[in-house]
Amino acid sequence: MSLGLYVAVATRAFRRYSTYRAATLAGVFTNSVFGVIYSYAYLALWAANPDAGGYDKVDAVTFVWLGQALLMTVALFGGGATEDLAERIRTGDVAIDLYRPVNLIGWYLASDLGRAAYHLVSRGVAPMLVGLLLFDLTLPVSPAHAVAFAVSLPLAVTLSFAIRFLVACSAFWLLDSSGVRVATMGLSIFLSGMLLPLVLFPGALGTVAEALPFAGYVQVPADIWLGRHDGSAILLHLGFQVVWIVVLLGCCTAVLRAATRKVVVQGG
Amino acid sequence: MADALVLTRRYVDIASLWVRAAWVYRTSFVTLVVANGLLTGLDAVAIFIMFSQLDQLGGFSLHEVALLYGASSIGLGIADTLIGSVERIGEHIRTGRLDQMLTKPLPLLLQVCADQFTLRRLGRITQASIVFAWAATYVDWTPARAGVAVLMVLSGGALFFGLFVMFSCIQFVTKDATEFSNAFTYGGATLTQYPLTIFPRELMRSLTFVVPVAFVNWYPCLYLLGRDDPWGMPSWLQFCSPLAAGAMVGVALLVWRTSVRHYTSTGS
Fold first, then answer.
1. Nearest-CA neighbor of A220 among A251, A243, A248, A250?
2. Phi-psi bin for B174: left (phi > 0), alpha (psi -120 to 50), beta?
3. What is the distance between the alpha carbons of residues A208 and A202, in angstroms, rounded to a whole number?
4. Is residue A149 part of a domain?
């Protein structure tokens, strides 16, 4: 029964975002423009150093377009269902959410997965097609890799959701969480591989970046797509995403409990 | 002339109102400025990491690319701080606030630009200036080069001003396409971080003659660095940034005026 409810929430979120067609079209155009710019930048980089980070130039350009496809899907710039939550904390409407006989985290997660599904089929697939038209890209090397990639996507979204949820909850204490939000956005862009594949990061910086949850946003799914892992190594990387999800959703629960106990809802 | 002074004073009045309002949430404001500096500085970090993998990108060394980056980012920062709010025009149309603004005895463009003025973008200008200053220590300065550098920064700001205003006008036609303009404003800024040698020739030509962002930094920087144009373009183009900026602003204001004249309220 409750699964049906979450599916209903997700479907509504999907439809809500699909209303804005012009916005989607504009977004696809913008993703494509940035895809083209970064593709040429990476081509120049890999022309100067043909196996930088263990990628070849086709891998590198594929990485660019995967990044553009995942940008909105995993909400690297923030936004999504957690944005609604932050606003409702600010206005006090969150009190109503807490009344509901539904798990609040589950409700917002379902809504965010619905949003992500829409962003994947629109802002994900369309720029990827543009990339395929304009540049030489690799496709997943085997059906198993394609399936693993498909599994890693909802995991990436859930991972990013958990972090965005924590950021939104900071509004219980901070009144205005936009500072924390911008800072998290920077970390997400830098440490996910979106800005530059993490394989290029030198030494300790690279090791640390690959161990943090943000790596699960772009780097992990992209490496699966590019066929950089095989067999059990794929499971290891999916497991990396799952472990961080468990830890972070645990934090979400704890923070939410602390918030509802300690903070008097503002507004009124 | 007196007119311009009055208008500037009005702009400053409105802007300082917003600055004071932001100062109420002090912690958040300071975090935002710092976060903005770090966030926009990520592009610079990406360039430095890129150069850990190679010596030359498109035939340009690190300090040369840093000069390009700094110049472009300062230009964008200036425009974004002064008139970045013009991007919210679609929101004003949707909520009907634009109709209120039209009844006030001040130019619409000034009101829209000063609305929600925020100093947090000082973060970008600061970090870009640091990168620029570092790169400038490698430049063999002469009075003529200093003059070109000053004109470059002013023209860069004006060119981005033009792009912001012009592409925001799209929102008079479709209300949700804010992102479309990002492709030209932020896209232009991203593109000009790199030496234009990494792009195909046709792209370089359209960036010179169609959307003239090559004048933001590319041509004047070639002069500062004392380099011959790698594309064999005439060297007098290196002094044409103010002309390009003037043309851009002129066209943008024309588009703005036409858009406002054809504006019909949403009526709600």
1. A243
2. beta
3. 10
4. yes
Contacts of B178 in chain A (CB under 8 A): 23, 26
A66 within 8 A of A118, measured Cβ to Cβ: no
Query: In this structure, is residue B266 part of a structural domain?
Result: no
User: pLDDT tens across A54-92, in order?
Assistant: 999 999 999 999 999 999 999 998 888 888 898 888 888
Other CB atoms within 10 A of residue B261 CB: 7
Is residue A180 less than 8 Å (CB to CB) from chain B? yes
- Model pTM? 0.91
Q: How far is CA A77 from CA A158, A183, A260, B15, in A?
A: 15, 10, 27, 27
Task: Give tens-digit pLDDT for A122-146.
Answer: 999 999 999 999 999 999 989 999 9
Q: For residue B268, give both structure tokens.
A: 């709600």
Q: Which of A113, A31, A125 is nearest to A80 (CA)?
A: A113
Contact in structure between A82 and A165 (CB atoms under 8 Å): yes
Alpha helix positions (H), chain B: 2-24, 26-50, 62-83, 89-95, 97-102, 108-114, 122-136, 143-168, 170-173, 178-191, 201-209, 218-225, 241-261
Chain B residues close to A119, C-beta within 8 Å: none
Q: Look up the domain containing A79 and give its range.
A: 2-262
B267 part of a folded domain: no
Nearest to A240 by CA among A198, A204, A200: A198
Q: For residue B19, count other CB atoms closer than 10 A to its CB.
A: 14
Residues of chain B with pLDDT below 70 are 1-2, 266-268
Whether residues A174 and B28 touch (CB distance < 8 A) is answered with yes
Number of domains in chain B: 1
Phi, psi of B68 (to 5 degrees): -60, -50
Of B124, B150, B165, B139, which is closest to residue B248 (Cα–Cα)? B165
- The reply to whether A179 touches chain B by the CB within 8 Å rule is yes
Nearest CA in chain A to B197: A44
Q: Do B123 and B65 meet the contact criterion of CB atoms below 8 Å apart?
A: no
In a domain, A68, yes or no: yes
Q: Is the CB of B39 less than 8 angstroms away from the CB of A186?
A: yes
The DSSP code for B60 is B
Ramachandran area for residue B232 (φ above 0: left; ψ -120 to 50: alpha; else beta) = left
Q: What is the DSSP letter of B116?
A: T
| Cβ pair B54:A52 closer than 8 A | yes
Determine the structural domain holding residue B136 and report its residue range: 2-261
Residue A115 lies in a domain: yes
A25:B177 CB<8 A: yes
| B23-60 burial: b if 16+ Cβ within 10 Å, else e | eebeebbebbbbbbbbbbbbbbebbebbbebbeebbeb
A8 touches chain B (CB under 8 A): no
